Amino acid sequence: MKRVQYIIIIMLWFSVAGVVTAQKAEALLDRAAAAYESSNGLKASFAANIRHEKQGVSESFEGTIQMKGDKFVLITPDTRTWYDGTTQWTYVVRTDEVNLSNPTGDELEFTNPMTLLRSYKKGFTLSYIGQSTSDNGKMADDVMLTSKKNGDVAKVEVQIERATSLPVRLTVTLKNGMCSVIRIRKMQTEISQPEHVFRFNPADYPGVTEIDLR
């Protein structure tokens, strides 16, 4: 009888603990989302590492991203991506081609995990991992988002800096085993970018081949 009572108590404890960690995770992400929405446009430089252990593939690179609302422009050594809230342009440096598309929410999460700040309440189970220290030595909290959807993303771990309430590291794991770790090096807010920043300008890329995938 005592054994049964003990098991019930343990089950109840884990149930309550799960609710508490989910609530704490949601509160942290709510603050992060509010900080982003009030940032009036931000710009960040980052370092990324993408690896697929099963395939023995690993790649590291640096880049920059600008965001405002649901719009962004992402610059890496191999590609440049603009998204104006509806249309996405992806310019491939090697081929001098730009692909036009209307990405889904899952596709946006893969291209730019920071969009999770606007969509984390849809299709994810939240849990609080614990306290941590960011790369710049500041206190932070780690939150796990586990996907409940059928998309490519399996889970996302977000490190949120306490001083700013903004993410400073994102670890995205896909269902095929690929893992991307993105570390924010420097972030500026109150950029207030004009709308044209988030659209591809053909005049800047004379002779480019446009491929419309919409």
UniProtKB/TrEMBL annotation:
Keyword set, alphabetical order: Signal
Pfam family of the protein (one): LolA_2
CDD domains listed in its UniProt record: LolA
Superkingdom: Bacteria
Keyword check for Ribosomal protein: no
KW Coiled coil (keyword) present: no
UniProt-recorded name of the protein: Outer membrane lipoprotein carrier protein LolA
Organism: Tannerella forsythia (strain ATCC 43037 / JCM 10827 / CCUG 21028 A / KCTC 5666 / FDC 338) (Bacteroides forsythus)
UniProt lineage: Bacteria, Pseudomonadati, Bacteroidota, Bacteroidia, Bacteroidales
